[in-house]
Design brief:
The complex is a heterodimer of chains A (471) and B (406). Chain A has 471 residues and is an alpha/beta fold. Chain A contains 14 helices and eleven strands. Chain A has a five-stranded parallel β-sheet, sandwiched between helices. Chain B is an alpha/beta fold and 406 residues long. The chains are: A alpha/beta (471), B alpha/beta (406). Chain B: Its main location: plastid.
Chain lengths: 471, 406
């Protein structure tokens, strides 16, 4: 199945119109018509819908003169340089640093959870919608309980995704299980969607013996090769070039899958962001870059992070198709990610999605965000712009969800989580040998010696080591 | 500097092991690569583990006869079968090509590695043979293509990442340290990163300070990686192949001045053990430990020393992380004197770590303090004479040996 896009009829004429308003035009106004698909399996064949005159957006379109250079038709002359022909102008005009109009945000649901008339979006079935809502609510409960557990001193650290539930769940719902996810750290919802249990989350946070990471990483650094979710690594943006590598690998194996990677607004300042996007574009690798622009990088507001119009405008700089999406609108995120995924796989190209949202919680449990932002700003986003409530309204309006379902879900999730935490807490920790395993595939001699030395030490002086510390 | 290796005497060095090995040659072949590779990482420090690692390797179907076994102990062509002569960079290329033929997951990425063939021509011809995707020219961002290699490795490929010059890999330090070395561990063993990171380094050719780095000093602390340095066409090919087959990330250090060394290497397929040191010249009076280009300075000094009546034992340590303390230990126990000759700087180099390791492990066997000859703690200057003074010269080595053997 391929996604077909209609190009706005007036695109060309509006381009000409705007030529006088010196702009860096980023007119990537793709308005997908409702898609009809024959099977749930993806196939490489594509078809035209008889209803609308859909035309596949091709790269030929993109060579339209975007910026202000006066297209003087008499000047048919062009200069030949490495990189192709460029027209020339005798008028010295600088491309302005920003467009007069910010790139608009794609959204489908309004704040009251009603579909905006004439929206383009991929329809979501009742089953899918209910599942999405349930997972969003579960994520909320999970974040709340684990945060409280950290405050009680039961786990050392936690990082919530409050306010970003729609991005987490809707993007995960739009992907196939074969798509490889390289997260930043605020995307546990993707793992939740794919089937990671609440017990498995708890085990990782407690670093106990059942943790797949074998107690080696901080809490919230989940990873599961079974669910195609790369283990989270703390340094920011290192996953972006790796995503280009994953895309390269999938391209080489000709797999029907793409790499999907997440980054925050702050992470886009890292060199790896530039490099990762550039590489993915040059390699023509199937990668979907999803930037969660939540306004804050710990205490750094986006006005102090970059001077561009957000992240979406940066896509064109690398030759990457991009879109700005209302990250708190689950349906919009779903459609955008789904379409981006199709483009990435069928056209073998990277796609950039900027999801606008707000980080309601603190950066992590080591942060108190009231120190650098107004408490009523946080309250406003938490109550009035809540993505979970918004989606709930739509689901309820369709008659697919009720108050009873809500209380049942939340109390069940809460109960399950509390049990998971209690069990994970009691579960014994990794034995000493796991300190030395997996550094290499087989333990070398020096590590064997170090392990032996430590073991002897612990056995000789058990009183100096915490109880439950076993070799 | 003589290009052909003087390894004539070295063939006898490990002969006691050879007889064990030839018996084991008829062992059944292993089919799974992962099973084989698991045995490679036993660093020999006691005879049991060392012996077993040798034995397992011998039973590979790749090394079908005793000739190759002997050739592996001596880094020369004393094998009875005629081999073929080539230069070191061609040996690297041959090793890489053979591995790419053997396993479709092996790919190469780096700057100008494709049709340009690499800055030292190690990847010449590979893009024509395997295509532009498998031999990938990347934009200029070391952190990015190293990161890309790591991501690709985690999804099943076996990338060989080339840094145009080792010094540039400092830009990739974040990916190498935080991800390459760590992700196997922090993911609880769920993801492996079988990458090979290689490139030319070292001093010579008057390339200036930024292009004369010895990165083995900076990388040696990173847990989870292995480091090897090649010095002859024979071990260059063998180490390249072994590094590609290893499940661990391996950094292969090549030297800018050694690419045109000529040697005859065996025709049959072989690999070198990644954790093993190479006995270049057995002796009785003093153990000289060295690697990469300094090996040749040491051998030159050895000629002078022999004329003066000394009998130095020269070992090319080859494996920079972990050290082959078994071979080194046996040598120290025999000679009781150690001289380390390296190109790293005095502070924090491989020599510094090796000195500490030897002192810790073999203190009782030393008759004199371990001496380490290294480059000074200065950036490498451009001027030819100045550059030559930063590198340990044969005359210094001779003086040091005389001093130690008083």
């Amino acid at each position: 199945m391929a996604i077909w896009f209609a190009r706005s009829k007036n695109l060309v004429s509006s381009l000409r119109h705007n030529l006088n308003l010196s702009t860096i035009l980023n007119k990537r106004d793709y308005f997908p018509r409702p898609i009809f698909y024959t099977t749930s399996q993806l196939s490489s064949t594509s078809f035209l819908s008889p209803v609308t005159s859909l035309r596949h957006e091709s790269t030929a379109v993109e060579t339209q003169p975007d910026h202000l250079v006066q297209i003087d038709e008499d000047d048919g002359q062009e200069l030949d340089f490495p990189g192709g022909k460029v027209g020339y102008t005798s008028e010295m005009k600088f491309i302005p640093e920003s467009s007069s109009r910010r790139i608009p945000c794609y959204r489908v649901l309004d704040e009251d959870g009603r579909i905006i008339p004439d929206s383009d979006f991929i329809p979501v079935s009742e089953k899918l919608a209910v599942r999405m809502y349930e997972q969003m609510a579960t994520l909320q409960v999970m974040d709340h309980i684990f945060y409280e557990a950290q405050r009680q001193g039961r786990i050392s650290f936690y990082l919530t995704s409050v306010g970003e539930e729609a991005i987490n769940i809707a993007s995960a719902a739009a992907l196939s299980p074969d798509d490889v996810v390289l997260p930043q750290y605020r995307e546990p919802g993707v793992l939740l969607w794919r089937g990671f249990t609440l017990e498995e989350f708890a085990n990782q946070c407690f670093g106990n013996k059942a943790d797949y990471g074998k107690g080696r990483q901080m809490p919230i650094h989940y990873g599961s090769n079974r669910l195609n979710y790369f283990t989270i690594s703390s340094p920011i943006a290192t996953q972006l070039p790796q995503a280009a590598g994953v895309g390269y690998s999938l391209k080489m194996d000709k797999k029907n899958a793409c790499a999907v990677t997440f980054i925050g607004d702050g992470g886009t300042s890292e060199g790896d962001f530039h490099a990762g996007l550039n590489f993915a574009a040059v390699m023509e690798a199937p990668v979907v870059f999803i930037c969660r622009n939540n306004g804050w990088a710990i205490s750094t507001h986006i006005s102090e992070q970059f001077r561009s119009d957000g992240i979406v405008v940066k896509g064109q700089a690398y030759g990457i198709r991009s879109i700005r999406v209302d990250g708190n609108d689950a349906l919009a995120v779903y459609s955008a990610v789904r379409s981006a995924r199709e483009m990435a796989v069928t056209e073998q190209r990277p796609v950039l999605i900027e999801a606008m949202t707000y980080r309601v919680g603190h950066h992590s449990t080591s942060d108190d965000s009231t120190k650098y932002r107004a408490a009523d700003e946080i309250q406003y986003w938490k109550m009035s712009r809540n993505p979970v409530n918004r989606f709930r309204k739509w689901v309820e309006d369709n008659g697919w969800w009720s108050e009873e379902d809500e209380s049942k879900l939340r109390s069940n999730a809460r109960k399950q989580l509390l049990q998971a935490i209690q069990a994970a807490e009691k579960w014994e920790k990794q034995p000493l040998t796991e300190l030395f395993n997996d550094v290499y595939d087989v333990k070398p001699k020096n590590l064997e010696e170090q392990e032996l030395g430590l073991k002897e030490l612990v056995e000789k002086q058990p009183q100096d080591y915490p109880p439950g510390f076993h070799v | 500097m003589s290009a052909i290796l003087q390894g004539a005497g070295a063939a006898t060095a490990l002969s006691p092991f050879n007889s064990i090995d030839s018996n084991k040659l008829v062992a059944p072949s292993r089919s799974s690569l992962s099973v084989r590779s698991k045995r490679y990482i036993v660093a020999g420090s006691d005879s049991k583990s060392f012996g077993s690692s040798l034995i397992v390797r011998r039973s590979e179907p790749l090394i079908p006869n005793a000739v190759a076994a002997k050739a592996d102990t001596a880094a020369s062509s004393t094998s009875s079968k005629p081999g073929h002569e080539l230069l070191l960079f061609e040996a690297l290329q041959e090793g890489l090509e053979e591995e790419m033929d053997r396993d479709p997951h092996v790919c190469v990425m780096g700057e100008d590695v494709g049709h340009y063939g690499g800055s030292y021509k190690v990847t010449k011809g590979l893009a024509d043979k395997f295509g532009d995707l498998r031999v990938l020219d990347t934009p200029i961002c070391e952190n990015a293509f190293t990161g890309m290699g790591i991501g690709a490795a985690m999804t099943g490929l076996r990338p060989v990442i080339e840094g145009m010059n080792m010094g540039f890999l400092l830009l990739a330090f974040n990916q190498i340290s935080n991800n390459c070395g760590m992700l196997h561990y922090t993911s609880g063993g769920q993801f492996t990163i079988p990458v090979v990171i290689r490139g030319p380094g070292g001093v010579g050719r008057q390339l200036g300070a930024e292009h004369s780095q010895r990165l083995e000093s900076y990388f040696q602390s990173i847990p989870g990686i292995q480091m090897v340095a090649c010095s002859t066409p024979y071990n260059a090919k063998g180490l390249m192949k072994a590094a590609i087959r290893s499940e661990n990330p391996v950094i292969l250090f090549e030297h800018v001045l050694l690419y045109n060394l000529k040697e005859t290497i065996p025709d049959e397929e072989y690999i070198c053990n990644l954790e093993e040191a190479e006995m270049v010249r057995p002796g009785e009076h003093i153990t000289i430990l060295t690697y990469s280009r300094m090996r040749y300075h040491v051998m030159q000094a050895a000629k002078t020393l022999v004329n003066k009546g000394y009998d130095p034992e020269v070992i090319d340590i080859r494996s920079l992380k972990p050290f082959d303390l078994y071979t080194i230990g046996n040598s120290v126990k025999k000679t009781h004197r150690v001289l380390i000759v390296e190109e790293c700087m005095r502070t924090g180099g491989i020599g510094a770590s090796l000195t500490a390791a030897i002192n810790e492990n073999f203190h009782d066997f030393l008759d004199a303090p371990v001496m380490c000859l290294s480059s000074q703690d200065v950036p490498t200057p451009y001027a030819g004479t100045l550059e030559e003074w930063t590198v340990v010269q044969p005359a210094q080595i001779v003086t040091a040996v005389e001093q130690l053997c008083q």
